[in-house]
Specification:
This protein is mostly beta strands and 320 residues long. It has 6 helices and 27 strands. The strands form 4 sheets. Strands 2, 14, 15, 16, 17, 18, 19, 20, 21, 22, 25, 26 and 27 form a 13-stranded mixed sheet that branches. Strands 1, 3, 4, 5, 6, 9, 10, 11, 12 and 13 form a 10-stranded mixed sheet that branches. Strands 7-8 form a two-stranded antiparallel sheet. The chain is globular and about 55 Å long.
Length: 320
């Protein structure tokens, strides 16, 4: 990895020398120095101490979506704690051949590498009271309904200055400055349990130590916290109750699904929908790492919860 000043200089030179097509918003991978792939894609929102956003349901029961403004238009973006960067649906871009962007950035979803179309430069993006730009967003075929459903994804790199609270019953997402978190929780919520998490510094992937009870034994897994996934996903060695073929493809296959008992901290969830699938991959500090599985919304979406990356905590809540 280049020194920080060299990284900034390389990025500036890349932007200044872009072809006409890139100036219209589409930047091809060949126009960008690969060594700055994470530095150029990370944009951190900053602003008010507490930002309230209306939460909308997606195709899944708990999937969290919010409205954002880009230019004069409104779009639906998903909050995905299992994703590092902001992504944009490829339908926003003119037809362009795919390149190796997804492999370089590690956009691999449970064994399947997403097709990529380049990088889009969003000059200005506004969410609630927050406004920032430019945002560099990889263009991927998100597969969630395109422009009629999911326009983009907010990854964790955008929210490192905030604690994030999801409340499906209250249909809201709160972005809270960490200094204000305790006062917000004491006024409106009771803490059910506090669970330590591990946060990868470069990729921002959040991991939770999880106990999975299947038919024969309890196993311990380090699962990624993923609001972009509905079921829990664990290795095939964990044989859940009531296994059956799934109608959903994972990694191009039809895996088995079943019911397991999931325990995080002091909180136990029984008969949770669980998918058996091979490990995924993600990139941290430029190296590919194995992702054993994910903790999905069938567990964490059943009650309000707060994720603090600064304090490295997942706090399960209930309304007062």
């Amino acid at each position: 990895m280049k020194p920080f000043k060299s990284v900034i200089l390389s990025f500036a030179l890349a932007l200044l020398t872009l072809p006409v097509g890139a100036q219209n918003g589409i930047i091809r991978l060949t126009d960008v120095n690969d060594s700055i792939m994470y530095d150029m894609l990370t944009t951190v929102f900053d602003g008010p101490d507490v930002v309230h956003l209306g939460l909308e349901r997606g195709l899944l029961e708990y999937q969290p979506f919010v409205r954002v403004r880009i230019g004069n238009n409104m779009y639906r973006f998903m909050f995905d704690t299992g994703c590092s960067q902001t992504l944009l649906h490829s339908q926003f871009a003119p037809a362009a051949p795919g390149d190796s962007l997804s492999k370089l950035l590690g956009f691999e979803s449970h064994g399947k590498i997403n097709e990529s179309y380049g990088i889009a430069r969003i000059d200005n993006i506004k969410i609630g009271e927050l406004e920032t730009g430019p945002v560099m967003a990889p263009l991927l075929d998100l597969g969630y309904g395109g422009t009629s459903g999911t326009h983009g994804v907010f990854g964790m790199a955008q929210w490192v200055n905030y604690d994030i609270m999801f409340d499906w019953k209250g249909k809201s997402v709160l972005l809270i400055h960490p200094d204000k978190t305790d006062s917000i929780l004491s006024r409106f919520f009771k803490v059910v349990t506090t669970i330590p998490v591990q946060v990868e510094e470069a990729s921002h992937v959040v991991f939770v130590e999880t106990q999975v009870r299947s038919r024969f034994k309890t196993r311990q897994y380090r699962l990624a916290l993923d609001t972009g996934a509905e079921p829990c996903i664990v290795p095939e060695e964990a044989k859940p109750f009531l296994t059956r073929p799934s109608v959903n493809k994972v990694g191009g296959k039809h895996p088995k699904v079943g019911r397991t008992t999931i325990k995080i901290g002091d909180k136990k969830f029984r008969f949770v929908k669980t998918v058996l699938a091979p490990p995924s991959m993600y990139v941290d500090r430029g190296e590919k790492q194995s992702l054993v599985g994910v903790l999905g919304l069938k567990v964490i979406g059943k009650q309000p919860f707060l994720l603090s990356t600064r304090n490295k905590q997942l706090i399960i809540l209930k309304n007062k």
